[in-house]
């Protein structure tokens, strides 16, 4: 990606290196459950609330981090802010930007205790995205989806859940089918951002392929095959690899949020 001229977002809370911020844990069973939906869950509270969360959340340092990876994600966040601000403005509304929380290992959120084993997540209760940057190593090694735009896709997907919160399309976990449609819409919204990032000349050759590779790598069918050696479609929570690629591509091609209505689509 070409983000040299992109402003860094100030809506970043850096909790990295803050030892002793949290206590307790969700245990092996909870981690196994979380790993089934390892990537990009929008409301992890069902698992996180199993853990002790006594004590207030500790605030980290606010503002764009000075390290290379922290600076990268703050610029990606700034790009999403610029894109969604313009989209919301065209519809006559204001975009309220979320906060990106960077942490190591575990941290408290308004949805409960978050741990790195769960992957990046969005908490609608505090409108914050939570990312342990070690996940990007997993993205490259475990999921074989390297590249900076694949990393940006992670943030854009979680921002997509924030857009759902603001527009009232976010669904609370009920049925697996509702969860799949929610996740695929966030993928489509990530594609909408990618469309406009391309128009701002922030994409380079190969970037789109990186994001499509990431979307394919973390489909429920691929993850289930890796973790349990078989695929159970009725237990999907995020969508198959083909579905995730299809909806990301749909948003990428059109750049129109209205083309991301997964809840009315007869077929996903």
Task: Please name the defining characteristics of this protein.
268 residues, alpha/beta, 5-stranded mixed beta sheet, two-stranded antiparallel sheet, 9 helices, 7 strands
What would you say this structure looks like, in words?
This protein is an alpha/beta fold and 268 residues long. It has one domain. It has 9 helices and 7 strands, in the order βααβαβββββαααααα. The strands form 2 sheets. It has a 5-stranded mixed beta sheet with strand order 2-1-3-7-6, with helices on one face. Strand 4 and strand 5 form a beta hairpin.
Proportion of residues in helical segments: 40-55%
Report, as a whole number of angstroms, the end-to-end distance.
Answer: 29 Å
Query: Which range does the strand content fall in?
Result: 5-15%
Order of helices and strands: EHHEHEEEEEHHHHHH
CA-based shape: globular
Q: Count structural domains.
A: 1
On the 0 to 100 scale, the average pLDDT is: 83
Unreliable segments of 5+ consecutive residues: 22-43, 45-56
Output the radius of gyration.
17 Å
Which structural class fits the helix and strand makeup? Answer: alpha/beta
Number of strands: 7
Q: What's the arrangement of strands in the largest beta sheet?
A: 2-1-3-7-6
**How many helical stretches?**
9
Major pleated sheet: 5 strands, mixed
């Amino acid at each position: 990606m070409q983000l040299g001229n992109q402003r860094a977002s100030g809506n970043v809370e850096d909790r990295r290196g803050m030892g002793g911020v949290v206590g307790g844990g969700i245990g092996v069973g909870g981690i196994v459950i979380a790993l089934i939906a390892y990537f990009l869950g929008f409301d992890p509270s069902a698992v996180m609330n199993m853990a002790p969360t006594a004590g207030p959340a500790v605030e980290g340092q606010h503002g764009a981090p000075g390290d290379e990876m922290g600076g990268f994600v703050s610029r990606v966040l700034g790009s999403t802010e610029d894109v969604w601000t313009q989209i919301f403005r065209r519809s006559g509304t204001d975009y309220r930007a979320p906060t990106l929380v960077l942490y190591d290992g575990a941290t408290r959120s308004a949805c409960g205790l978050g741990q790195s084993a769960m992957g990046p997540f969005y908490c609608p209760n505090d409108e914050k995205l939570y990312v342990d940057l070690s996940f990007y190593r997993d993205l490259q090694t475990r999921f074989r989806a390297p590249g900076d735009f694949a990393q940006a896709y992670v943030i854009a997907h979680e921002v997509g859940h924030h857009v759902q919160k603001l527009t009232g399309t976010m669904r609370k976990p009920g049925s697996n089918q509702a969860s799949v449609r929610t996740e695929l819409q966030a993928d489509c919204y990530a594609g909408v951002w990618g469309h406009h990032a391309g128009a701002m000349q922030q994409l380079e050759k190969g970037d789109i392929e990186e994001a499509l590779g990431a979307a394919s790598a973390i489909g429920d069918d691929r993850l289930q095959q890796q973790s349990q050696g078989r695929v159970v479609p009725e237990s999907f929570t995020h969508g198959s690899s083909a579905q995730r690629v299809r909806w990301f591509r749909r948003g990428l091609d059109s750049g129109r949020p209205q083309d991301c209505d997964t809840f009315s689509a007869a077929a996903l």
